[in-house]
Structures are given as C-alpha cells and as structure tokens.
Design brief:
The protein is of the alpha/beta class. It is built from nine helices and six strands; from the N terminus they run ααββββαβααβαααα. The two termini are 26 Å apart.
C-alpha cells in the first residue's frame, strides 16, 4: 500500500473533522464497457458542492459553496438560496463563463492558503476520481495535484472504524451514507428522502432532465416552477449529502 493510499484511508481525528472541507460531485451515471465509472465523460460531473464549518463550535451552521460545472444549468444559479431556508450559514452558487473556467476556479478554491492544508473529505473514491480527471491537464502543476492528493481523505474509513468498534459491525457492505444517516438519526426532508435506494438514480435523472430542457434557454424568466423545484432538489440533495456526512463523522468520533 502506497503512502498516499495509507493517508487516504486513515480515520480522521475530531480536530481534522472540525477543520475539514467536505466535497460531493453530482452528475449522470456514466459507465465504461466494463461497468466502471467513465470519469473522462463530462456528464459524470455536472455540479460540485463544498461544505465547511468556519466556526470554532460544530453547533454552528456550516457554509456551502456550490459550483455549476455543466453550462446548460447556469440559468439556475440564483434561483435557490439554502441559507434562506435555514440549512446553512451562507450559500453561494458559482458559474464562471465556461465549464473549464468553473472547474479551474473550483479547484483553486480547494487550494486556497486559508485552508492551511485542511483535509478534503468525500464519502467514496468516486469524487477523488472525478477531481483527478479535472486536474489532468496543463492548467494545474504537479505540486497542485500533489496538494489535493495528499489532503484527500475517505469518510468511510472513519465511519467503518466506528461501526466495528462501537456498533459491533451492525452496518454491512456497501456502507452507504444513507445507512449511516439513519443510524445517527439524521433526518432528510420529504423532498430528499430515499425511496428504497432510488435516491441516487433520481438525482441523476433530475440532472439529465434539466440539462436537456434548459440547454436552449437564454434567460432566467424562461425557467418554469417545476424546473426551479428540480434545481432546488439538486441543491438540497447535495447539501444533505455533505452535511449528513459531516454529522456522521462528528458522531463517530464522539462515540469512539
């Protein structure tokens, strides 16, 4: 096992979780012929959510920054504010003229010096594979790629350690986030509730629907209320994946 692999799978400490930046990509389910995810297909990364808590106490609401990577979704940018609904302390949705520019700005956001090498945390290696593909070009240096690689951490490593030591292995493979959310009592709104494991499929379908229906629209006034509702679903779904992951880890380290 390489040093990077060992670090990636190392359980997080309470202080690391407090300082962490949580990351979650949304997109369509794009597969290669062998069934693995095709990270080179841009449809696999349409939207990125980044969540963190800038406060010294974890009882405060976190901050949420989301990036629209798929240009067909850019009209939705200002149609929903999660902070107004009490989900987070502050919510920003960003799009920078092109997909390439937005992806670049999203990665620069993770590379900001203010993070002081804070861990970048995702629930699976899917998100890690996506960002590696995003950085696989001459816009980023080897040093920047190494920075992201070194800081990336697997949330499941901490959750699985808690499962072994405190839950007697109650949770079985594949260790889905939704299972851990249920164990810690994290309540999802009715809009987001998992329908017998179909939540992941629904978010992919909602993304595809909006991409197909908005690609020829030119102004925010052209958006219908059902389309705005679908966009709210995407934003909230992404938020609850991020905040739910954070709450699972906070519970895991406090109960260990």
């Amino acid at each position: 096992m390489t040093r990077e692999k060992k670090t990636w799978k190392k359980p997080l400490s309470p202080q690391e979780i407090s300082n962490a930046i949580f990351v979650d990509f949304e997109g369509e389910q794009v597969k290669k012929s062998d069934g693995s995810t095709d990270y080179s297909d841009e449809k696999a990364r349409k939207f990125l959510g980044i969540l963190w808590n800038p406060f010294s106490s974890n009882s405060h609401l976190p901050r949420l920054q989301q990036f629209i990577l798929d240009p067909t979704l850019k009209l939705c940018k200002n149609t929903f504010d999660a902070a107004e609904y009490g989900l987070c302390h502050k919510h920003n949705v960003k799009y920078f003229s092109t997909r390439e520019k937005t992806e670049e700005e999203a990665i620069k956001f993770l590379l900001k010096e203010r993070w002081n090498d804070a861990p970048i945390v995702s629930w699976s290696d899917h998100d890690k594979g996506v960002i590696q593909e995003m950085m696989n070009n001459d816009r980023f240096s080897d040093e920047q790629r190494s920075n992201i690689e070194r800081r990336w951490r697997d949330a499941k490593a901490t959750a699985k350690k808690w499962n072994r030591e405190a839950l007697s292995g109650k949770i079985k493979r594949p260790h889905k986030l939704s299972t851990y959310l249920s164990i810690v009592g994290y309540e999802l709104p009715s809009l987001i509730e998992d329908d017998n494991g179909k939540k992941e499929k629904k978010i992919s379908e909602e993304m595809k629907y909006l991409s197909d229906h908005l690609k020829n629209k030119r102004s925010i006034e052209e958006l219908t209320e059902p389309q705005k509702t679908k966009w709210r679903y995407i934003c909230e779904y992404n938020f609850h994946d991020l905040e739910g992951m954070r709450q699972v880890l906070l519970t895991a380290v406090s109960d260990s």
